User: Fold these one by one.
Assistant:
Number 1:
Amino acid sequence: MPDAVSTGPALLEIRGLDAWYGEAQALRGVDLEVHAGEVVTLVGRNGAGKTTLLRSVMGLHRQVSGSIVFDGTDLAKVPAHRRARMGLGWVQDDRGIYASLTVEENLLLPPVVSDSAWSTEKVYDAFPVLADRRRAPGTTLSGGEQQMLAIARVLRSGARMLLLDEPTEGLAPVIVSRIRDIIHEVRSTGGTVLLIEQNVKFAATVADRHYLLAQGAVVESLDNADFQARQGELLEHLGI
Amino acid sequence: MAMNELLQYTIQGLAAGSFYALAALGLAVIFGVLGVVNFAHGACYMLGAVVAAVLQDTLGLGFWPALLVVPVLLFLFGVVIERLLVRWLVGLDPLYNFLLTFGLTLLLVDLVKRQYGVSGLPYERPEVLTGQIEVGGVGLPIYQLFVFGFSLLICALVWLLMTRTRVGMIVRAATERSDLARALGINVGRWVTPVFGFGIALAGIAGVLAAPFRAITADMGSNFIIILFAVVVIGGLGSIVGAVVAGFLVGLVEAFGQAYAPTYAQIMIFVLMAVVVLVRPAGLFGREEAAR
């Protein structure tokens, strides 16, 4: 299956990406690509540079050099809001739900950027709890519900590629499996996902390929079969 | 007797609070979206009053049209200031924010002094707003009631704008987390200039309302801005509701202070501020994370 989607130009192509926080280098020459229709995870310890990598793709971390090309466009000079409008859907690690916006306003905040956008009805059918709580302030939802809302928000905008920063962190198993279902559905409808995932078992059930990051560099690129075969070794590497 | 006084001072306090509420509202939206604390806000309030007086003197523009024309002029003034100066503050140390906007205050105050002197400009209020109205045997100044009512109306309109429109939703999102709003496809930069102009226009409305009521001098904003910052700290920096509630609250404290303990009137405002900061560092309606 990876072969089928790996042909042709990548949807996201990163070459020689360096990133800094002041003097400290957070990414070192990262090469990475994600093809349309793929689900790819970034695996690595805390501080390996995973979040910096996603933030750099989104345009939220600007102290970078190297190239990030999305859908044939070099993103170097593209501001974050235009990257979102090009189809990058951002779900940050703390879910980024607005306290001063209602659940529904959180959902409707991003502009619709493509035909594949979910309608509000579809979102409410898929996540009935959001419909029930639509008038409540966003942050009155539980952690799991906020994660649903954060993902639903970018699906409603029609993002073609989801950037998910640890979507399952700290959530109950029932919510984690719900998120797995969503990622499967996104994939089955031709969507693309790049996600950070510390939970190796979860990563193996949703992704086509995996990049292992250590100290700001990609140390391995694995397809899912290799990844599953070496799970024990990887768990040890991650120190979990 | 005591009841009469109570009612009188309450109306007086709410009228004084109206100026604070409107100006603090402007300060709040500007800080929310731009992250800039506009120390020139008192000067903009002064400009509102001075421009109203000058337009009345030169063109015969009355109070009612001034309530519309002056805020529009101040909006345009805000747009120019933001385009020319304020936008350079992005990413700079907050000290530059203070230097620029405080420097602007000095400049505006001295330009007005140079042109119109220090003695104060005359302003005529419309006939219908003069005199008193009897309520339960107490004479209440019609103008104070009008000021309170009008500013409540403006505050309500701003609140509707903020809570019922897409623009308001974007402003709230940008206020709470600007980075995230941009990552969700919102062009926050596009709203910066109009929001700044809007905030200045609100100070301008306060200025026009003050014109028939207060001495119109170049320095009228100097004391105003000091109280205004107490209002903003009490209400919570960046909070819309907080700005309005604290504005009226401070107006009441000021009016009752002046009535019963004139020497302590201003001190009481700052005692109130200190108490609020001790109990709720982010202000009455501020978010805790904003207090970091």
Note: The two ends of chain B are 48 Å apart (CA to CA).
Number 2:
Amino acid sequence: MKKQLPTGITSTQQQLLFRFAILVIACFVSFSIRLFAVIRYESIIHEFDPWFNFRATKVLVERGTYEFWNWFDSASWYPLGRIVGGTVYPGIMYTAATVYHILHALTFPVDIKDVCVMMAPLFSCFTNIVTYFFTKQVSNPTAGLFAACFIAMVPGYLSRSVAGSYDNECVAITAMILCFFFIVKSVHTGSLFWSGLTCLAYLYMVASWGGYVFITNIYPIYVLVLILCGRYTHRLYVAYSTFYIVGTLLSMQIRFVGFQAVQSSEHMGALVVFLFLQCYCFVQWIRYLVPRDIFLTLSRIFWVTVGVAFILAAFIATFSGYLGPWTGRFYSLLDPTYASKHIPIIASVAEHQPTAWGSYFFDLHVLSMLVPAGIYFCFQNLNDGVIFVILYGSFAAYFAGVMVRLMLVLAPAACMLSGIAFSKLLVPAVALVRKWEKDVQYSRISEKMESKSKHAKWTSPPSSNKNSKALQILVYVLLGGAMLVLFAYARHCVWVASEAYSQPSVVLSARTSSGERVFFDDFREAYYWLRYNTKPDAKILSWWDYGYQISGFANRTVIVDNNTWNNSHIATVGRVLNSPERKAFQICKKLDVDYVLVIFGGALGYSSDDINKFLWPIRISHSVDPTVDESAYLTADGNYRVGEGAGPALVESLMYKLCYYRFGEVQFDRGHPAGYDKVRGEVIAKKNFKLRYFEEAFTSRNWLVRIYHVKDLPNIG
Amino acid sequence: MAVDWSSRPCTWQRLCILVVFFCIVFQLVDSTQQKLVKIEKLDRTIDLSKSYVTEKVVIKLNTAKWDAFELLVPFQQYEESLAHIQVEDSSSRALQVKEQPERDVLYRKLVVLPNASTSVSDTIKVTLIYMNCLKPKPQFIPSDGDQFLYYENYVRFHSPYEVEEQKTTITFPQSQIQFVDRDSIPELSISGKKAYLGPYKKVKPKDSLSFGVRFLHNIPLVTGNQVTKTVKVSHWGWLQVHESYELENKAAKVKGGVFSRLDYQLMHYKQSAEKVVARLPLEARDVTYKDYVGNITSSHLRDADRSKSRLLQLEFRYPLIGGWKNAFFIGYRVPIRKYLDALGSSRYQLRVGIAPSISSSNVVLDHYVFRVALPQGAKNISWRYSSHFVFDEMHHETLLDILDTRGRPVLVFEKRKMVPNSMAFGSLVITYELGVWSWLEKMLLPVGFFMVLLTCISLASRFRFRETNGASNHSIYGNQLYSLHIALSDTYQEAIDTFSKMKGTLTPQQFQSSYSSVHHRLKEYELQLEHLHKSVVASLGNSKLATLANQLADIYKTKHDIFQRWYSTTRSKLGNVSSLDKELEKLLQSLETENIKLEKWLLDIQDELK
């Protein structure tokens, strides 16, 4: 049956080569599609959180591991400071530092910044490879190749892993898929080796991202489902028990997790299932030893005792405070509306909002439609691994609906399921086409033979009846359609990569009417000004969104930053911004603030500025200081406006004054009067006012960033 | 008399006095023979129109014998602001200037040695360039205010010699000039943008009357606090240049440190610097303009102008108003052909320009570091200047760059206080030896690495191949499965062949016997398959192979069923058919679906066996 090719390669080798080539191409595509960010803009760290990771990586590289663990960052959360070593997921920093040291050892003196920028594209290649093996494990190699090709450019994953988005997620997704692969592998084989590897992958995942809780919870659920399906085996027992014990011990080595791994509620599911599995195994063992009727009573007694003991233990642990309370982020996973009702600081983050329907299509394109087909095919050919994929897919789909940013977790599942669907649809079709080809050849040969020796030994099977003709058309339509779909998918992904997800959000760009690109570099302009023209120990107060960027770009002390660990501190900053000038000045002096930085888009038309975010500082400071009244900042009919009829407290607030200081004197456009705010589309309510306690220190070219100096206290009185 | 003299007791004393007297007389005669050194005429011009000060002094010496000519520079000025000093004789040839090693508290003494060829150098031209000596006064001005600069110097040129006649001309940028305590300065006259001091006759040595002047000048005083130019030489074709600048505008500060964008847009802040121009070589490529936080988008590279260079217009991220700082880098590369000459027998000569690219009239440098990184393995390095510019300090470093294993030798030159615009700095000529191996090393290193890597991979893959062929249960079972499949499919093929051969006279017995032999063989194989499946499951657990075995068993079971059914139907109508061909076609058709499954199965098993 083995075909020998002219070059002497067997068809197996040929297949291997083919697969290898496809994987390499997929890796190449996934790497290069993420470089749009570098080509369109430059090699720069994106957004907000990556700036902290980058800063931490620099500390790790320059000062070494021990200094990094002991790093107390006094330049953030002034005057509290932050114990960074114990409140950080260090996976990505260690990875980058390792790559950096390896490159240096190989005599490539690269800049640590470039290593950090290229981290995400590099790990997307690894994700490709791991996805291939995972899908191959649960289904077949064809599905694996499809999945690898899909994940190479799925927008949902791409959005978090373009070059420069040096965030935890970019390595964590690789770690997660790797962990899933090892889980399935260890459940399939029941070998300690694979279980051990699962634990190592889990350790890496825990070190990289808070999303490791997903693995901690999905594995026990998977175990329960397998038991309920009657698929309990010793392999499962070995795999899960090893994972729970070794994995938990390893995860406790990460300081940020520490004893949470055995105390917090998020981790309890795994413990409960672990205990249940021991009991189940014990019961199974008893079943072999005693007669059936005694076994039934015994098992009943046993389960009741265990159940009662468990409930008691849970009660005692909760009330004695041993178990940590459930955190808000977890509640909001279960109830999408929880956060917006109760925790303004979580609700204020755009990526914590529930997902809109449109973004499913935007982020997954055809995959969103192929997922159900994939699940259907999975059910058709059920095995342990496939059950895991189904579970993973459905959970990820639910969580993606709750929070926009968990689309990231759904994307690999969608790719795998679509890969399976595609392979199941196309492989039989292609096999049919091949067979027809063979038949045609065959009939030709037999015709020849007929013409030679009128005695036909073998009549070709009839392939020209009407039924198969219709089938033939159907198959070709299917194949052509699949091609079109894949083509559309690739086009969409490239478009998304080049237009939507490559912005660094530090540099803004727009197109002029003539199609030329213009850049607005105001953020860096202002941050760089801070870096060189303020005292080295100056304290900058700004809304927390810009904290990481200020400490990264400007190397100055900030009051709050994106690590939102202290709600009341943030509320104080909010209170500064929404108070009248005099009161704000008093708080500023108490906080030892030198400069106040606000982002103002009214002159440029940049809509995500501080004025538009202003309701959040109000709400967050209301959650701490109830005297803050949101309605005072709104118009009489309850709207949020800055123009005529704006809320009295709003017009008097420091934020308003700092943003619009001397704005009323300028006419930016010929078509609009002076003081016309381009974002809100109206002329501001109060144009001429003076600042008493603050003075303008810097305003960027397009007025996007405005920095004010807090005046000193007067010498007399 | 002589006896008399000698007989007296005090004679010896008198003799001594006499000797002393004669000595003094001779001394006096000797000094009157040689004329006293004196300056006959001294012409001084001071240019205050730029951000640095150029002082040009033309000195006419008298005809006395000058062993050396001394210049006195006040110590503070010498340390803080004297950037450059150049002395020429009447035929514009440079004279050597030596610094006196002993340190006076107040003055630094510089000695000019006349050339050996020019015995009588009656006129000496001294050019002194000072920086950092124009101070804004007042230091703080309103945002739309004008800047006044303050300058101090001696009214008469400070020298250790007597001057017969001297005068000074001062050029100002604008006519708004205020001398401090004007009445106390003798012979001062101002006309337009110029002020004249003198002429003064018979000026005594070390006359130290000084003047202060305050004048309007709205220029930024941009100073490079630390400027570094690094040149990396590669024998593979390119010269990489990287320059880093830390600039500060030392002009008058704005009151309260306030910067209002609106006022700036209304053309306030007259002392701000927004851009500088860098001159790059004509063939410069890959020009970058960056700082610590990334690219700076606001720059233009213009084509060559008359000076045969490319102009890089650099706009700062933010305007530098008085007291503000900034830092940035520029980089480019040029083909090395123009700069490197081979001197034969693996000796090379490199010429690199000393001056930094930015040499605008209002940029002065406080500290300039010039680094030349030679290729790895360069030996016997020697260097000289092409002009009379001299660096203050020099030391060696090593640099590890791409693919460097031992590090490149780096020559580091340092200079405190430098005014790039004031003169031609010429270039540094470096000669060194570089063996062929050293510069092939870079290419051989990666090639060797990949060769070793690929060899290792190919060896490893061979070893692994053997191992898997050896004793892996997995592949044994796989192979058994595969061979069973071959046997089964061969059996079917045989059966069909035999049936298709049966023609004409067909007896049911014949048909039955051939069928039952096939049937038995199939049964046997299926049993084997069943057995194998069990052992696979037992030893390998729920692996892919078990599913494969299961699938295969299923396929052949269905096939067998189809075959059996076909047999029973065909036997019943055996009498009616003459040839089995049509019936066989039917059989093949019904077996087709299973064959498709088989094909897929084959792909899988090949996968498993790889």
Note: Residues 1-7, 467-471 of chain B have pLDDT under 50 and may be disordered.
Number 3:
Amino acid sequence: MSSTAITEPSGPRPKHLTVGRIGLYAFLVIAALFFLIPLYVMIVTSLKPMDEIRLGNLFALPMAPSLDAWFKAWSSACTGLNCNGIHVGMLNSIKILVPSVILSISVGAVTGYALSFWRPKGANILFGVLLLGAFIPYQVFLYPLVRMLSMVSLYNSIPGVVFVHAIFGLPLMTLLFRNFYAGIPIDLFKAARVDGGGFWAIFLQLMLPLSTPIIVVAAILQITGIWNDFLFGLIFAGRENFPMTVQLNNVVNSSFGEKEYNVNMAATILTAIVPLVVYFVSGRWFVRGIAAGAVKG
Amino acid sequence: MKPRFLRFWMAQLALAPAWLIVIFAYIGTIIWTIQISFTNSKVFPVSNYVGFTQYSRLFASERWIISVQNLAIFGVLFIAGCLVLGFLLAVFLDQKIRAESVFRTIFLYPYALSFIVTGLVWQWTLNPTLGVQQTMRNWGWESFTFDWLSRGDRAIYVIALAGMWQASGLVMAILLAGLRGVDGELWKAAKVDGIPTWRVYVHIVIPILAPMFATATVLLATAVVKVYDLVVALTNGGPGISTEVPAKFVIEYLFQRQNLGLATAASTVMLITVLCVLAPWLYVQYFRTPRSAS
Amino acid sequence: MKHISRKLLGAAAVLSLLAGPVAAAEKAEVLHWWTSGGESAAVAVFADQFNAAGGEWVDAAIAGGEAARAAGINRIVGGNPPTAMQFNTGKQFEDLVAQGLLSNLDTVAAADGWDKFLSPVLIKAVSRDGHFYAVPVNIHSNNWLWYNTALLEANGITPPTTWDELFAAMDKLKAAGVIPMAQSGDAWTQVLLFNDVLLGVGGRDLFLKVFQDGDVDAIKSADFLKVAQTFGKLREYGDAGQQGRQWNQATGLVVTGKAGFNFMGDWAKGEVLAAGLTPGKEVGCTPGLGHQVYWIGGDVFVFPKTDNADAQKAQALLAHTMLTPETQVAFNAKKGSVPVRGDVDTSKLDACAQAGLKLLATPDASVPGSDFLQTPDVLGSLQDVIGQFWTTPSQTPEELQTKIADIFAAAK
């Protein structure tokens, strides 16, 4: 697949401004509105004071916009007796995110590479179980995993939660890399073997440099997935290490008193900012990488 | 020639982490789960075996039956909806339009949001007394009614809609990537022959994109089986128990209702269903045709 | 592995000794789900009193009872339990006791004389086989009817004392174009409403026959059918915005005069007070419509077993502090509940609390909450059936009766 084919639209040539063209743009604009409405609601509500929200007009622009709710969500919203907002969780989330992403992608890449080119005995069984593993609800694993991690003293720690993310990231990561490597001509690999390349030499010197597009896709999927995780953070990270999503849940689900929609919305957007930035910055790369990784289904 | 196993000992070593994870985290927990499902464990696992009691209770439970039905409705609508919408978006984006990257980003951004956030936002937007319905009435359309979220027979469709909102962009990205790989000569040839554009898409492009559709379907299907957060944030299973799903059944009996036996029986049934549905398909997809040496 | 971690722990202990003597504050990590404004104020009373008594309160709040209980149980399983952990009064912690995972509190209970100031219902709820395993901290009552006094007056309605009067009043409100009954969409509030009807229409004996004895014949009786019919009739008086509405938003509708009535527990007072109004005045209260019965519910703290001597000391101190008269009065005033001690000054509590206390003191006018009497499993099935009935107008009271009978028959 050549790179020009990826960046250039290849549909039928435009016929300049025809009825069809106008219909095309109309469809895209309406679709864009559908996708943007929730974001609009979140932003507008987060800028309104509570008096305005009580009026009940969800879509109206704020009459007196203020950033108070944002400051409150960031630094002073309360959970129990701790009134530090959700900023504490941001650092925790990063501490969990970085090693989890690196670990799960490394293991996934090596596994995909070994499965695709070397195919040692039992490779098919391993891959089959991994694939099925991707479809099992996480809830099934929680209880025994708590037991296992506490046996090796990793329960309630950042290494513990990183380990759990690596476990559950493995099926998808392996699938991505295996498919990507399946698109690389096997002759390339055979030639490297003839030249005396060993397992790691071929991986590090030949395959890894070729893998940039799929690494980008894997990174994007893992960053958003791990950042948005709530369940594992709550159960495995321990109180000092709660990620941002757990704190968001604490802020949003306070069960007594008036619901502060503006603070909730601001906290929600703040929590989503990291994956959103990743998407806005890397959207183009994502499409390219997917093109390279999804070739073989 | 050394035996295959020895020849590839480094490859085996490299696969050791994956093997360990598969053996302990996957197979180990699955065996444990199946074993517990035959006991009457409450909060903690005990080995007091009661045969198939938990299973007969499970299938007598109206809530479980509704959960399974909902999963089927949600799964079909969500996957079909995402594929259709994602395909349309990809095709329309592929027409050399202006501001393509802006549109692409707009369609893709919901995938960066968690299901919890998606659920909350749509709950606010579609609440009959707060969101769209109230706004329309405020604007003077007094009889406007969109109360699906509070109707037991319709709420599951709202959940599918919210899911489509979140995941269609991903399908679009995958299919757009596929469309960019379609040979430009194809369009020239089709034009020369005077074949209408829509027929080219239906008869030639869609078959070419089949592998991409398969990838997208796999990704969407994993989300379907695991759907939990979205339901909790959007309806919490209500009104009544009309939007319950199996994963929620499992976690609720696991912790809140303190019946480990029933929870593990439910997960075992889920697991077996997944195996029956997926195993043949996965086999065809990934194992039947050996890797081509081209 | 275990030995290695033991050794590491030992090394850490030696290191901490080398680091010099530390202030002997007894650290207690307390896991609870009281995360809102009013609840936080109440929990701060515990923290302050505990710190003043020489302890060090480490707050571990997790929003949502389910999430908090799941996290706590997982930590106990994982061998890293919190010092203390919250449950609702009742059977939720029964399995923990059976597995021998909770500290026995008999020493503290004997020293402080729990049997002298706790009611028999509470003693039964926090002990198993004659041993204490939990500290009760408050008494909540679920079955209150709240109403907007001004709205009722404007429509010429006197506060109802019977169910027939309530329906007549709600018909008037419906005709006047206001929401007759504010109801939340959360399933537990629908169950609460059902229990209110069971107590108010069916009476104390029927309630006990159902929940205490699991008497299937009582459920199949005509009296129970009347309960189901009354509950079914109430479906016609809610509005379309129930789904997604939380209990406090429902109470808020009554507080602001948008709705006439709301069935809710005594914690609804917090909403009234937050709006700057007085419970019993602008917003009236009736403790149980029809048969006046006090439903006893509340919260307890349990103390997971530990080998750590410091943690054991902290547990004993915390158990003692939570039940001193000063702590009880200050905590419950903030929480909207009633102190568990029968020997503290309650004269400063508001009119609604006084009415409740009077009932509580009347013999045979109170029942233990359903959490005391049935497992979470049975109550969960009940919740499914009731929630489904409430949101499906086509379902008949007879169907509800049969389904509830099936649940209790299966639980036998």
Note: The first strand of chain C starts at residue 26 and ends at 32.
